[in-house]
Amino acid sequence: MIDLRSDTCSQPTHAMRSAMASAIVGDDVYGDDPTVKELEREVAALLGKEDAVYMVTGTMTNQVGIRAHTEPGDAVLFDQNAHVYLLEGGAPAALSGVLPRLLPGNRGVFSPENVSAALGEAHRFFPNTIPAPVKLLCLENTHNIGGGKIWPLAQLKDVCDLARSRGLSLHLDGARLWHATASTGIAEAEYAKHFDSVSVCFSKGLGAPVGSALAGSKEFIDRARRFKQQIGGGFRQAGIIAAGALFALRHHRERLLEDHEHAQLLAHGIADLPGIELDVATVETNIVRFGINSLPAGEFVEKLYERGLYVLPSGTDGVRAIPYLNISRKQIREAIDIIASVAEAHANTAGASKTSKQPSGSGY
Ligand SMILES: *Cc1c(COP(=O)(O)O)cnc(C)c1O
């Protein structure tokens, strides 16, 4: 089975497993796991922040970040397709009690004007106690539902400057920030410097088995540690898994370009197949999202699965495939052949009316 469902399906390498097996550990809740501390220091330095805190998932780092920036009843600006809003189990409402205000991003990218429009204008005739105060803006780079879209740095800066001038705090969901850096050569810290907090994942493209980190100022991370503990995120000899994350951070960032090449190979290999809607220019990093108009996406992926390719449906007409470190070039070629065989078998039933070049659905 060629598993391209997600880069989270990556398996730890032998070298990573031996680093984990020999990790020096302690009780992290008492703050004395040396491997966790080393990881936190390295991540903070890489992102140009004072401190960082290691947690079990990206969902936890994002949601603890949101909680630490807000109080219940505050409003938060999210892109309409943000992972933190759509794909984290309703956590902003359940854990932070915040009101989402959605921005009309295009593949996750929105403008300063979108932010101003969402914030509105205060006027002395209207009591400012009526609307929920907007405290935070969240931005995602690269953007998952946006197909691994990279935020242009100048636009990111303009959006952040505008939000800051209006008194908002800024959080970056950088689960795949590594991929933006691998592709553009712009250092992670150059993106991160515009934000008060940044969340990064070790368990996706970097290939570690578990974990994410939240970085920010010393004061902010101290506050975040309290909310991590509050939701049961205090873990004891976490150095065992932190060692995998540290290994991934040190050894697996450079190789991400190989995954980007594999994504290109896959995209170019299937873009012209009957019933497939894919603009190869939208594939910027490791995520390949394409539309399917010959049969429902759910059925299409079942047929791929029967032939040995495991990918995810996204909405009714979209498919997502993601190469990662255990996926070889040969497997990508096989994946193309499998997609071609199913697409061609159903070519006759392809609807002719579809004009969109991208799937409309949202999904993981
Ligand atoms: C996967 C992902 C997360 C959450 O990570 P988990 O470790 O699965 O909780 C957050 N943001 C984005 C953009 C992601 O792709």
From TrEMBL:
Gene3D superfamilies: Aspartate Aminotransferase, domain 1 (3.90.1150.10), Type I PLP-dependent aspartate aminotransferase-like (Major domain) (3.40.640.10). InterPro entries: ArAA_b-elim_lyase/Thr_aldolase (IPR001597), Low_specificity_L-TA-like (IPR023603), PyrdxlP-dep_Trfase (IPR015424), PyrdxlP-dep_Trfase_major (IPR015421), PyrdxlP-dep_Trfase_small (IPR015422). The keyword RNA-binding does not apply. Keywords: Pyridoxal phosphate. Its cofactor is pyridoxal 5'-phosphate. Homotetramer. This is Threonine aldolase. It comes from Pandoraea pnomenusa.
